[in-house]
Amino acid sequence: MTRRIAVVSAGLSNPSSTRMLADRLASATVGELRERGIEATVDVIELRDLAHDITNNLLAGFAPPALEDALNRVVSADGLIAVTPIFSTSYSGLFKSFIDVIDPDALAGMPVLIGANAGTARHSLAIDYAIRPLFAYLHAEPVPTGVFAASSDWGAQADDVKPLASRIERGARELAESIARREQQEVLDPFDPDAFLGEGRSFGHLLGGLASD
Amino acid sequence: MSSQMQFGIFSVSDITRDPTTGETPSEAQRIRDIVTIAKHVEEVGLDVFALGEHHNPPFFSSSPTTTLAYIGAQTERLILSTATTLITTNDPVKIAEDYAMLQHLTGGRVDLVMGRGNTGPVYPWFGQDIRQGLPLAIENYALLRELWEKDVVDWEGKFRSPLQGFTSTPRPLDGVAPFVWHGSIRTPEIAEQAAYYGDGFFANNIFWPKEHYQRLITLYRQRYAHYGHGTPEQAIVGLGGQAFMAKNSQDAVAAFRPYFDNAPVYGHGPSLEEFQELTPLTVGSPQQVVDRYAAMREHYGDYQRQLFLLDHAGLPLKTVLEQIDLLGTEVVPVLRRELAQNRPAEVPDAPTHAARVAAVYGDGPAREARPTSAGGNNLTVGGPYQDTPVAVAVTSGSAFGVAATRTGAAR
């Protein structure tokens, strides 16, 4: 039974430390799932490549094909790894704009591992005061550990009591457990009458009292 | 006169600054212009003029039936329609009255497209809650149907004060209510609603890729058959569209680009080229427009009505009239021919009042509603019209809601 993990990376530079963190989180999660006998594939979505499409979606109200494809891959995934740089105390504007073009109900119940990066560890609580409430609002299920990487985590002056690798492992383990627990989602076609009327029901039910037909 | 397909234009009634001159027309000017535009639609041989409804600047069309009646008085064949009528925030009683009135004044040249509107504050302005948009659309329309179909209505619902023994006047012309289309760009329940009643479904087909509308129209056709109104191919479909033309396609692109780039809805977003690729907007020669719209039935099936958005985004009157000329002389005659080819015989013609009257009465006389002397007392003295079946008047009850299941209540 193969699962699919969507990875959203909102880094702006190339190479980007946001993407580096995203890739570490993804491969650690795949490894944790494999230990539980679950194969997983990974879809990486680089928001930089979609930045114009995202803006066009905000302005024109529909997603151009590449963005439509990315949105479908996110909302139909078994788990989501969402990684953003911290800009001015919060997720980046591009990251939020992408979230804003997702159907607000589409992430309900989705296991999410939150990652973030910034120049120094002084920004690390942004995960819990800014990003976590966003996913709570969307009724997603972010795992308790969020993984923050400061620039120093990638080299000298790294945290050697709780190094980045152990934090990644802990977050990945929690996400893997959450994905493993979650039953595979059946994607309901919103244009199937059973989906919008309720199974076996008719327009008469929408009218209220009359339920005869 | 019956025709397989009806062609025309629909206007959202925006008053927009012309980006090439910096001029913004006054309300008075734009309202005079819309009458000129509608009359020209008839002059070039098109069939339909449809007008939007908005309750905020920069739009002028807060009172569509006033405008449509004035246009109706100055035209002879033109079908007057809406794009859209707000079924959510208008009182269904007033819609029933206004459009039956317009039917009488124009000899039945009226139909409506129901919509929920896209301006959030309209709901609270009219005392409603946008979160109830869909339930409002469903309940209000159910009442509207009843008001048109029954001389005497007892009704109780969630959103409007109850009615006891109410008669909506005037009765629909010839006893046949205006044809109704339901418009939606994303809501399957509205396609379901259209199918349930055997009404038409209108996809505005302007702003989004065709796949969005395809799903809704496919659903509508399937459910139309499910509710027993005919085959999926017999469902009544209308489409919007958008074009800007010049003899030479490069001239069309150059002339339209500043209007596109600054248009209120999609300006400063996708490029004109991207938008043309992703949506039905076609900017080019009349032949390009013919090719694009002759192919619409491949995506949606054979259909009954095609409307174009031409007067918007600050385009000056002269340009709009030229566009209507091109549409009427070089595009629509070819489309009529091409879309008639291989059109299965079972696909119905576009709806007209005359055809709908004939379907009800055959060659017999249509209803002429003549009031009785009951003076509006529908509760105790027979019916309000000489031909109101007394049994109907006495036992008429709500078709749904609390009143439908209530027994022993005062009639």
TrEMBL record, chain A:
It comes from the Bacteria. InterPro entries: CE1759_FMN_reduct, Flavoprotein-like_sf, FMN_Rdtase-like_dom, NAD(P)H-dep_FMN_reductase. This is FMN reductase. Residues 4-154 form the NADPH-dependent FMN reductase-like domain. Keywords: Flavoprotein, FMN, Oxidoreductase. It comes from Protaetiibacter mangrovi. Coiled coil: none annotated.
